[in-house]
Amino acid sequence: MDVSQYLEIFLDETNEHLQNLNTQILSLEQEPGNMDTINEIFRAAHSLKGMAGTMGYKRMQNLTHDMENVFSEVRNGNITVKANMIDVLFQCLDALEEYTTNIRENADEGTNDNEPLIKQLNEILNGDSADSGEEQPTSEPTAEGAAEAEAPAADGDKKWLAIKLGESEQNVLEEAVSQGKNVYGMTVKVQESCILKAARAFLVFKAIEETSEIIVSSPSAQDIEDEKFELDFSLIVISDASLDQVIAAAKGVSEIEDVTGGVLDLNRVASAEGAEAESAAEEPAKEKESGKPAAQTVAAAPAASQAPAKSGKKKADEKKPAANKPVVNRTVRVDIEKLDTLMNLVSELIIAKNSLVSAAAASGTSSTAVNEQIEYLESVTTSLHESVMKVRMVPIESTVSKFPRMVRDLQKTLGKKMELHMTGEETELDRTVVDEIGDPLMHLLRNSADHGLESAELRKERGKPEVGSIFLDAYQDGNNVVIEVRDDGNGIDTEAVKNKAIEKGIITPEQAENMSEKDSIDLLFHAGFSTAKVVSDVSGRGVGLDVVKSKIEALSGEVEVKSKLGEGSSWIIRLPLTLAIIQALMVDIGNEKYAISLGSIQTIEDISPNDVKLVQAKEVIQLRDIVIPLIRLNEILDVESKKDPGENLVVVVVKKGDKQAGLVVDELIGQQEIVIKSLGKYISKCKVISGATVLGDGEVALILDANTLI
Amino acid sequence: MMDEELKVVGETTQFIVIKLGDEQYGIDIKFIDNIVRMQHITRVPKVDPYLKGVINLRGEVIPVMSIRIKMGLEPDVETKSSRIIILKMEQQGTIGVIVDEVKEVVTLENDQIEKIAYDSMEDKNSFLCGIGKCDGGLISLLDLNSVVMENI
């Protein structure tokens, strides 16, 4: 089977499951007895295994299979969760992640069998499987009995008995049995008078899938859909419900003449296929001898009677390609490239709209009808832009959910006690930003864990709780998303920072003396700076914080640090909601047009030249008791201002963090929605220009980056 | 890169002949994406003087440079025949260059192209990769990679 087309989906879903497993195992560590968690873990491991099997990744399948066995025993209460088991499980997840990475890179899982891990898993299993041993003999007779009872009936209406099972399907069924689900075979007969057989079959499928999962159908689901069957078709389903319920569900569909079914005995099917197993009774015995967990095949009968009646929830989690079920999903997976194309088209539309606006203005058309239509068009394009933006937004959860696991590992490597508290995981950001923000956040968290938090003894001495806390809070603030990484550790020792900077030759001792606290904290972002006395593998390679800063600035965001010595520090990241289209203020400077992002603009002031004061030979203005430095844009941009020196100044006050600056422009043109275009790397020297945009009249205007001006 | 191709005997290369002042220059046609009329160029501050700014080419923002300033000639004087040739370079992407006039397309056999000796380190020569002889006239063949290379 050619599976390459499913590779992408496989990778996506595998990542989701791995992530899920990570989270769930973490919470399992917290509360080992939580059945919901264990069930969730089991389901995820099971789906992983099924997927790996379908895609033909044997090693991955083997590993997940053994993990699943462990979970299964945990679920049955035969093994209790211990710390060493959690460690092994985490190692398994790492190994699985490695497989996935290999698959992503070269479509092959690699050659690492991870035997030590499998051995460890089996040891965990065997350590406690003695208890479960009792169960096995009791179940044998039942299984045997069932096989005997059904054997003579393999004719006539019971066509389902003739269904041949492939290896992967057999595995899926065995797993289901070991999970305590029932496996039924059934044959559905359609009335002769029925015209739309395929439609009826579809309804039967749908009805059965309310409570069960269809594993095999004969003829195949595709053939049934194409109406390539006579009057009956057979199914093998996994279900939590009783046989009668399933049959009743199928019979509930009109024009169905009859439905017959029974419990499917896997061993019998296997032997009917001519597999090596001689009889149903012998196989479990053999498996027991070899010390393997035999529970999965044998536990069928006792589990069947228990039949935990929960279904709906499970269905969503388990997507097996083998089932091929016609389920209508409410969500669609879309390639991010298609969304990019869509976004580009929206950008073009907005440019076209802007052109229309200026064309109408230029031709002097003052007809209200035209203006009304243009306004309508404007509101449509704006909402279109917003909708497309929303489609591209994903919760940051996908990125941050790996952090609790990371903190747990850090706790072990650093030998400190710490806890991560996260809020606002549901906050949404543009997909590209979410993908990029993971590394910087990880750096900051590691930084907090390594440099921020003190050791448990020191914390005790200082009267703080022994367990250090790291907080990760995300929330939306206007057109920005704020992500805050906080810790209740030592805070930043500015003296130590300065000394280190002097030592590294970044600043001179004289400079250090005059430095404000804020400036010295900013030294941390200097390339090649690291205060850790010992280079650990956690942080302290000196590549952390400056990379964090440049990465965030590349996403048009900013970082701010607040710290109090002895009480902790917080790192505040601000990111724009969207990158491609912004609201901007157009200004005129010496007959050239420039755009300033509305997001950074605080106020616009009309200042008399007399109010401009000089401080240290630099122009400042005083605005509501705050002294704000003035920046004459015409000087920065090398153009002649066309205004008289005596005229009032138009000052655009912009802010960056808590700093402000007043940009002097010649004239304000107005607010406009602009599409950001890159200037390309050929013109990258100009730092104050962050990009360009095409105006309505086809002219290019440059976008001023207020952040670099302050 | 180009030199190697020129060595192959019997092959021909097409050049677009442009004028800068009185001199004729040839640009290998394979680098040319488009030729557009002179239009308003938006100046970009704080960049090298030979970078004239950016233009809007069908919605894309493209940098435009002056070969004249880069080669140390007199600054461009915009006339009716001035054109911007849009080049597609492997490394630098799309770039426009301003020329005084676009004349014609010529096809040169390899034996019509004379390579330039590299020992003369004169500034102007370093932008050329050869001299083409065609109908009695001489065409200086531009080495585009060094023309659009950023000044360090």
Q: Name the CATH superfamily assignment of the largest domain in chain A.
A: Histidine kinase CheA-like, P2 response regulator-binding domain
Oligomer: heterodimer
Rounded to the nearest angstrom, the radius of gyration of chain A is 33 Å
Q: Largest chain-chain contact? A: A-B, 26 and 24 residues
Into how many domains do the coordinates of chain A divide?
Answer: 5
Largest sheet of chain B: 6 strands, mixed
Give the helix level of chain A as a range of percent.
Answer: 40-55%
- Which percent range describes the beta-strand content of chain A? 15-25%
CATH hierarchy class name of chain B: Mainly Beta
Structural class of chain A: alpha+beta
Question: What class do helices, strands and sheet pairing of chain B give?
Answer: mainly beta
At CATH's second level, what is the architecture of the largest domain in chain A? 2-Layer Sandwich
Number of domains of chain B: 1
- Give the DSSP E fraction of chain B (strand runs of 2 or more residues): over 45%
Shape of chain B: globular
For CATH, the homologous superfamily of chain B is named as CheA-289, Domain 4
Tell me about this structure:
The complex is a heterodimer of chains A (710) and B (152). Chain A is of the alpha+beta class and 710 residues long. Chain A has five domains: 4-132, HPT domain (Four Helix Bundle (Hemerythrin (Met), subunit A)), CATH 1.20.120.160; 135-317, 2-Layer Sandwich (Alpha-Beta Plaits), CATH 3.30.70.1110; 336-394; 396-576, Histidine kinase-like ATPase, C-terminal domain (Heat Shock Protein 90, 2-Layer Sandwich); 581-709, OB fold (Dihydrolipoamide Acetyltransferase, E2P) (Beta Barrel). Helix content of chain A is 47%, strand content 21%. In chain A, a hairpin with a 5-residue loop joins strand 21 (689-694) and strand 22 (700-704). The radius of gyration of chain A is 33 Å and the shape is flat. Chain B is mainly beta. Chain B contains three helices and eleven strands. Chain B starts with a helix and ends with a helix. The model of chain B has no long low-confidence stretch (mean pLDDT 81). Chain A binds chain B through residues 348, 351, 592, 636-639, 677-683, 685-689, 692, 694, 698-702, and chain B through 40, 42-48, 51, 53-56, 59-63, 92-95, 148, 150.
